[in-house]
User: Fold these one by one.
Assistant:
Number 1:
Amino acid sequence: MCAQKYKITVFFALVTVLTVAFAAVEEKPKAPVVFVEQARKSDLFDQLTYPARLAPRVNATVLAESEGIVSKIVAPLGRQVARNQRIMTIKHTDPVYQYAPFTVAAPVAGIISQIEVTEGSLVTKGQKLAAITDPTQIRVLVEIASPDLPDIRAGLEGKLKVVSVENEIPVKVAGISPTVDSATGTATAELVFNKSEPPLPPGVVGRVSFRVRNHTGIQIPEQAVVYKGRDTFLRLIHDGKSKLTPVTLGPSRRGFIEVVKGLSDGDQVIVRASAYVADGESVTVQQGGSGALE
Amino acid sequence: MWQTVSLSLSSRVGAERLNRIYSSPFRVYLALLAAAVAGIYCGFKLPISLYPNSSKPTVWAGMSYGSQTAEEFLNTHGSKLERQLRGITAENVDVERVEGTYEPFEVEYRIEFKWGTDPYAAQREVRHIVNSFASRLPEQSRDSVWVWLRNRNAGFFALSFYSDQRTLDNLYDVLEPALMPQIANVKDAQDPMLWNPSAKQIQIELIPEAMASLQLLPKTIEDAVNGVLMSRNGGAVSVQSGAQLSVQMPRIPIKPEDLGRTVIPTHSGKSIHLADVARINFEPRMTENQSYKTSGTPSMILYVTPRAGGNVKKMSEDILAIVQKTMPSLPSDIHYKTLVDPSEFIRSAVRNVSHEVAIGALLAVAILFVFIGSLRNVVTAAIEIPLSMVLAFILMHLSGMNLNLISLGGLALSAGMNVDASVVVMENIFRHFNIEKPKDFAARLQLIVRAVREVAFPVIASTISSIVVFLPLAFTSDLSYAVLGDLAKTVVFSHSFSAIVALILVPTVRLHLLSKEQSSDHKAPIESHLKKLEHWYSEKLLIFMEKPLLKWGTYGGLAIGLVLLAVLVLPRLEKEIIGRPDTDWIVLDINTRTNTLTRQMETAAEEIEARLLTQQGSKIQYTFTQVHGPNNAGIMARLRNKKEMRKVWKQMEEKFTNSPMTTYHVQPWNPSELPIPDPPHLQIAVRGGEAQDRADIASALDNLLEEHKVFPRIWTEPPASRRFGVLIEPNLEQWIELTRTTKTAPITPSDLADIVLVATQGRRIGHLPMNNQLTPIVIAYPRGELSTYEDVAALPLGINSKLIPLKALASVKLSEVRPTIFRKDGRELYLTKARENMGEEYKAKASLAKAQVLVADWQKTRSKSGNSTVSVAFEDPAKDMNEAIHQLGIAVGLSVLLIFLTLLIQFGSVAEPLLVLVSVPLGFIGVFVSLFVFRSTLSLNSVLGIILLNGIAVANSIILVDFIKRLVGEGISAKEAALQAARKRLRPILITSLTTILGMLPVAFGFGEGGKILQPLGIAVSGGLWVSTLLTLFLVPALHVSYLEWCQRQSPSERLRVAWMAFTGRMRRVQIPVFLRREHAATTREILS
């Protein structure tokens, strides 16, 4: 009987010990796995983008010099003409000129892009007859919003993107109108191609982007920033541990944000983590996965 | 009623009536047979569903803002609508809570109603308010209004269809006409839906620069497209013959390609085709960018919810039958898999409960056989189990109940209890037979009537005690009543019938059988052991009574033990509302961060699924993958064996660990879980002050808890972290100039917003009927055009033949915005919530305490630093649950009081009921210990188990106390009476207790579907009862003897004074019905003479 009791006591003691042991061996939470980015000084810039329209540099309008009837159109729409080449013949209707025919010549070389009259049309003096465009010489017209005007100067290089051309085409600001259109709030800027002009027809629309306000600085992926109330922080790695560091942020650009103060070259910044990283917590750095720097 | 029964049974008139009943067996059989047939009929008529009908409906409603912002909508419409929803008043429709979540583009309202509200009435009221409100809204919002009711009690039915040889669209075209018309006719099926995730839309992809250079606005395109989409009626021409020719102008675009021919007028006077400024695509809907896969094959879902109160089992079976019948006529490459089939669950639950009933009944019968002997007698006693159940069906039918897991559980529980009454009656009859051995019918009849009347009192008293305990349940919270009401009702119904059957059928059968039998001599198989046991017991009882040290030591020890258990063990028990049933579905939730296309997620999910299958393939039947968006997917895997759930779960958690780019969450999923609230473990509300302060405080709070890793999962609703948005502010001065100088129709600020909306999201402008379906038409800018706010600023506009950027007319900047506004009962607030991982809920209490300390410290520094009016308050997220358990605790107390009152009336004195009640705290000891040892929980069910136990446990002491009292009344000394009673009553006590304990064992083991739900109940009752029985056998006679001896020492008047002093003045006024006492005494004398 006594032995029985003893056994039971031992059994209960064992159970207690085991329960306590199991409770104690409770697994420790694993260190969070993090992606780290090294802070590096780099050239930073703001990007300004504008819709752009390709316009012919040469677009001459041919007007009637005097009243008459169009007797013959020599160069129809789309015909390539040389300078001073005859486009059409107009017969005077004024008896003073004895109904003599006179020739309308191309003021510039190019392609007839518009013909406003037909043979037999009666035209008055100064009436628009045709337009000649030189498709090989094109310029890019961009309307610059007034707040951006201080940043855009003649000579500024930009990139043109049009749907039909895969690569961006380098362009350069040739000049800007000094006045702002009060209706649109923009000033027109004329851009020229840096290298050879691409075979694009005038009238094509696209987009031009400029890099302005170039400077050196550090920028980090936006998701690395920790916000606490009004304050901003970054998690840096010191000796394998995370350290919450206050920083001052600058402008944000395409998923990246400039750090104005608080971060120095070479600092290791936690960009993403598998779990919440507490201040001072040990972390495991995962190699290979960068914070998606382009 | 029971008074009359007990009265009539013990009176002379009653004796004659009993004579009449018992001597005409066939009349009794016929009456019971008729009742049984009625019961079976009612049983078949009972609707079968997963859970009780009582529901707490929640209705969702929502709409998009169109061109308004969230704040604008909230101020102009939202708050008014909320007020109207809160004010819903109709018969049986009570609103409990209205929550509004204002997302950036749309709002969702959640209207929670009180328990017992008719879900359809609730939905009707909400729909009525929302629809009448919608008439005030702008057109775009008006069209987007929806109201939805999810009846969670009933579950839902879902199948996935797939084919590896055809596209989903093709599959849809095959399945829809073949299945849906039939399924729509299934009874109780509500809104059957065959959902094709690849449903297409017509996308008019505008070319931004072309639009701008032609100075076209999206609304111009919209008007032009809608102009050609309509077919028009031109009346009819009556022809001379009398016939009529109808005149119609059909719509022009019949096919999506035709839309490109829509003519668009431009400002220059030239007209162009839509195709000149846009590409027309026919592609999957952008907004519903999801995909489903069954074992890797793209699938579509058939989803059906049942009507409230409908027969879910029948509905699911009917739909499945339709699918099975139709499948052979469909191409053989089309397959389907069951995702959720409530009928499967119900079927196995019913099967399981019937097994439990059968096992319980078999065990009970085995006990009977062991104790009584004759197989025939055992069988006749065992008839009572199914008979009282079948009879209970009648009352269930009349009270509008249905057969569900809970009410079936009630039947399983009462299986063991139901033989008790019969056993007591039968045992007593046998005892008398063995003593007297009557020769003729009249003598037998006399003997049986006497035997019945002898035990009628304890039988009725104990039955009433075990029923009366459920009364307080009716006054507990809605939650516990909703969960447990059906269980209590079933137990009450079947148990009351068991008493009636025991007093009527059992003696009749006995008399009938004994009249035919020659020998009435029964020997139990363990007769000799029983004799020895009886001897041993009375010996030990004598020792116990005669050794004051042992006696008082035991009393003291037990009292201390009970207090210790209540103080130390009880608070440690994990609390829950109700156990979770096992499931064979496990879900792996995947969240990524940087994907932009749904296709990327699909590929990722495929890889993860492959990993899962190589790892656990042998244990998985099939998988079902849902891709919800570019960064979220879930892989559901159906296991071959439910028992492997824990193992698979653990292994999956180990394999799929979070990485910086992907987070996983593994959790079992049970589509047929009881729809009770599943609150978080921590909830802190941030209210008051300015919106920005509130957000800052909430995010700081979130950070604080995260920083200390108080809980594994912490989140804030709505997200309080900083969110940035693009703000477009028109330059007002310039706008005036623009309007003055523009020659053509001027552009307005709302045009600007519209262009941005079309550029970012796209806008639905109409529908084109195709293949009997309306295909939406959407105008949008090419996708992927806009990736930052600078792109928004550069959107081209055409003004006065100039191509200008949007930023020329408005300032575009990145700014902090409020992403989501969450309002609860008309107040904006943030809720920071946290919870433990599933399966680790026991840690919650400690974590919560830690959080409270942390937050209290933080509050101190916060109040020092500023004068913010924002309040931070811990809320009890499990308020409903705690309240329910608390109220059940009161119900336990009330039930004990009720037992006492019942006994008081029956015994006619105060002392005996108190003696009887001693077995109740003894039962508590067993309950606490067994709940703790078996790691069970303090849930609604285990508390119900305690209530049930109270009712059963007193039965044992009633038998003892009643017998001792009777013997003492005959002049036998107290101690002798106790010993005699112990010897003679040991057998019925053991039989009834063992049948109940063993009958509930299957429930306590919690086998099969839904077994886990009632497990704590089974553990509480069987664990508590055996401890209670064991201790009652010693304590109650000993205490009774002490009491009687003490009485003898005191003079009667002194005795009365002392005894009554102990009770309140009210108690003193209780008049003991004199006739009862006299009658009772007379009967006892009569029996013994």
Number 2:
Amino acid sequence: MIRWLVGLIGWSLAATSALAADPVTIGVGYLGIAGTRSTLSLVEQPAENDGVAGARLAIEDNNTTGKFTGQRFTLEERRIREGEDMVQAATALAEKNGFIIADLPADGLLKVADALRERGTLLFNAGAIDERLREADCRANVIHTAPTRAMLADALGQYLVWKKWSRWLLVVGSHDEDKLFADALRRTAARFGAKIVQERTFEDKGGARRTDSGVTQIQRQMPVFTQQAPAYDVLVAADESEVFGAYLPYRTWDPRPVAGSAGLVPRSWDASQDQWGAIQMQNRFIKLNSRRMTALDMQAWTAVRMIGEATSRTNSGDVKKVTDFIKGPDFSVAAFKGTRLTLRDWNLQLRQPILLVDGRMVVSVSPQEGFLHQVSELDTLGYDRPESKCKLK
Amino acid sequence: MLRMWRVGLLSGLALAAAPAHAFIAYVSNEKSNTVSVIDTDSWTVTKTIKVGQRPRGIDFTRDGKFVMVAVGDDDTIQVIDAKTQSVVDSLPSGPDPELFAQDAAGKILYVANENDNTVTVIDLEKRARLGDIQVGVEPEGMTISPDGKTLINTSETTNMAHFIDTSSRQIVANVLVDARPRFAEFKHDSSEVWVSSEIGGTVSVIDPKKHEVIGKVTFEIPGLRKEAIQPVGIGMTKDDKTAFVALGPANRVAVVDVASRKVTKYLLVGQRVWHMAFTPDEKYLLTTNGVSNDVSVIDVAAQKVIKTIQVGELPWGIAIAP
């Protein structure tokens, strides 16, 4: 039967169009940092191939379509080790790949973007959620499939306000990115009328995330840390650094739900998301990668699918043509979120619904009902056009 | 799905066996794993049949004796005896069957299997799997041309309508349409195929000979955001003059003038309208409303919603007995 199928595919290619005889090859690079970060929960520990696994699935999906359009997609992965030159690695990757999916820290991404600008390589930021990459430091050759901190915070905030949990106890970690997330949460509270009744800082005093003594100390520390708080409805944790957030649920002094970096978490994607036809993609992902799909996998998948969508619509593998189409007014991509995703043309951020998940289920999806907008309700999440400081160049 | 109903209808008319008004509608309830049986005389649910997991695509066999329902999470198509109204058999589909179409004689069934990018070909009499046709990512919409020579399959992530020659079972053309194509419907005179794109928010009109998109139906509802307009099911009257398009979370069915491809009216139905079926006399059009758990009854001539019938949880597909 396999032979029959192969013959069939070959036949259909020949019949479809002349260009099918000699498929156009479209090279996609994946640039990331070697090694994985440590999380408090072992379950949340990212796999070695976090992100690139999503890109790989999208390459397969694109290639299934490519059989009919005469396009072939390849994926080249490059992981940067400590001490290696990021720009050099990116330039080498750009030799054969007109499109690069990047999972890099903000500074690294900007360096790479500027180095590849002349070459015309189109970058997709699948990893960095920093606001500044879409604001003061935005670049015309970088498209963002990762949501921003403000989008994530707004998505959570809309739900908490809808739920009438409007008094927040904000607990912030001591690292820079924790503070940035706290900034975003404060902005959200101000926008949507929630009140931060008190802020507390959880100092990172170092120490291992895994110990043989286990939870006995944590069980005593967390109630003490959260006692004597003013009346509040929900504890909102800003702990991107994975120092304390996951320790909070069920351990607060007052019986209150936890949200933010633990408890109810805003994410672009989750392994439990099965609405809007997502189950098919989750199944394809598990079959290909023998694990479940993360938000980073989805952000990379979406980036590669955007490329595939644009190459099939333009019937071209030309980077300039494809880039123009993606940035143009007619572009949209379907990504199992119940609505078409489009780009904010002022900063090249992908508009997207944000899931609110508890680690087992999708609890809700924002934007919430009633948060209205004159252009797209998705623009109630994050910085909107009038507030933007981005000047694309 | 509607196609199968239509041929069933023709044989029904030929025999002139059915009484004037009473028809039986079968509605698949995706969440409650049941099929609701509706009597179109009393507009009530007369029976609820337990079926497998996640029933969606549903239709009658050509002879009107059986109802086939795709139960995706059980990887099979179950067969309901229309007389006893109970499940009597199952068909060997591929993984996760969703929608299907059968040939004019009712001998061959073509099933879209969402999970493995194939269309499975089944011999209905022998209940045997004849083979698979490789198509795009997430095959869904299925329809056969009135002459039976061409099978159309739409693939949701590849965004194409695949034209398959039913005798050779090979793809002869692929037509790119807007994002997430979900349903395909031929005009009765075979001159056009209409394909709905759920995420693209349009219906593409394809010339089945030239294999080209020759027009598009677009939708605009004042006060409703564009993203909420998600076309899925399509129904066309026998005279090919009027088409009805279910618009999903827009909670409306668009009435489209087929010749000009313009919307003439939007009918407010239940929430998240998926699919639809005409009664054989074409007096009524029934739509399944996924989120509000009901079926809307549209008076076709008056173009008005006249009734709402509560069914199971998340109704999806609908077929009406010939």
Number 3:
Amino acid sequence: MALLALENVSVAYDNQYILQNFNLNIEKGQLISLLGPSGCGKTTTLRLIAGFLEAKDGRFLFDGKDYTRVPVNKRNFGFVFQSYALFPHLSVFDNVAFGLRLRKVNEAEVKQRVLRILEVVSLGGFEKRFPKELSGGQRQRVAIARALVISPDLLLFDEPLSNLDANLRINMRVEIRRIQQELGITTVYVSHDQEECFSISDQVAIMNKGIIEQLDDPATIFKYPKTEFIARFIGFTNFIDFAERSETNGEIGLRVGGHEFVAAKNPGTASPMSKKCAMRPDDLLVTTEEADQAGMNRLHGSVKVSTFLGRSYQYVVETELGDFTVNQEMETPYRSGQKVNLLFPKDKMVLVD
Amino acid sequence: MRKKGLYLLLLPGVLFLTLFMVIPIAMTIASTFFHEGSFTLQGYMQFLTDKYFVKILLTTLQVSLVTTIACIVLGFPAAYYISKLGPRKKGILLALAIFPLLTSSVVRSFSWMIILGKKGLLNSSLLSIGLIDKPLEILYTPTAMMIGLIHLFLPLIIITLVGVMENIDPDLIKAAESLGASKFTAFRQVIVPLSVPGLIIGSILVFVGSLTAYTTPALLGGKQRVISTFLYQNAITLNDWYMASVIATIMIVITFVVIFFMNKLATKLNPKG
């Protein structure tokens, strides 16, 4: 059974639903990310789990117990804020000790546990400093230590890295993953940065307009997005909407307006009736050769725009089925207006809903 | 613009204050040390050895202290509530809170006389519901003064506290709660210590204001004197300007001592960082 389960949960502000009949299950020891554009409900979901928000309908089960009406301070969940929310009037030591002292842990044990957790987040020797005297990354690590030291049953992160610069972000996410795995603590992580989510998560839930569109491991989502929304979100820029679909010899035949395509049957996540194909710009090829090539679909077109990207060129190719974007490495680039053939590898055409 | 030129902007204000405040005060203080042409501390000796004078001084300090504490106790929760509101409601409630400051002290004090008097609103209602069987003596006592002063100065402490509390990150409360604190504990361990700067400034304003207030104690205190009314009596009724200057100097010294120690306290309690 899942450690955490949201069952048909609804949350509304001023009669406007943010979440409606929302469901989510999380297994013990996993790090699951909620990813999506702003306003998709990911932060609402996190705050609901933390107890800062109350569900209008539905149930929240944790470890088999009903937590729906349990107040925040009785949940024993660690929460790491985007703003860090360190207590400015307390030293690093007192910040981290805050939760332990509320639990009436004796002072000798408080000292030992605080110093140990500060070692874990590589902040040994900083206990006498005040939050103002720390850098952004150090503050974030104090915030993580403060949430970890109470041995929480669940760790919650709300966009913890968005206030840090790019290099620090990469270091910190490796750090968060290391600590999470070392302590084996179940974690829910919210971010709008897909690279961040994909790199640290066991599972990623991609959210849109208050529902989870796909919940899978990062590699599966990256290769086989379930919907057009997700495909666009993770970098698929080319789509073809086919009119007919048929299956023969383990391949899928797709037709639209006199054009016939073949797509390999892959372990995609879309529904078996889907007729929409998504392709990454890196997976298409532009060529001037007319000869048919094995495993390729072909479409005539002309180069509309040619842009130099440094390592490669980006072409926008105009065809009867619309414009396609292709990234390709080339010594001598194609010119604008040049007649070309666009090649679609069978196995790179991903069916989406 | 060169930086030096900017100092010129201060000139009108500095000139005004020097002419009409610094010099007169310095002269008042200096005059207390000279009586009939020679240096003397006689005025101070006389003041501090006279039991009547000392009693007035202690009553004044007591009234000011109680007023300050009452303002903190009454103002703190109200300020916290106001600081949590949206901009519209906050504006309305702050305007309401400031209202007592906008009415004349004479009008305000006369209203209290009507309420607190022997046949006033308070006594007649308490008598009619049978809670007491003879009128309470409130008007013309230190209690009446305190009531009037609390009414006058509560806005000051609310305004300064709201200003400080507004700037406390609401996530701090959530953080405390997620670490296991009840709402009350979070308030006590996070909001209260972070409000100390506002509390100190507000307390100084109320304490010094109560110490030097004239109209309210004069109208509500009856025969009961405080330093300011006593000063007035010496200067205007008894025409003893020498003694009045001594009293004025003592008030100035007390004010500075209070501000000095409150600032010391502030540095000690002030949240670091």
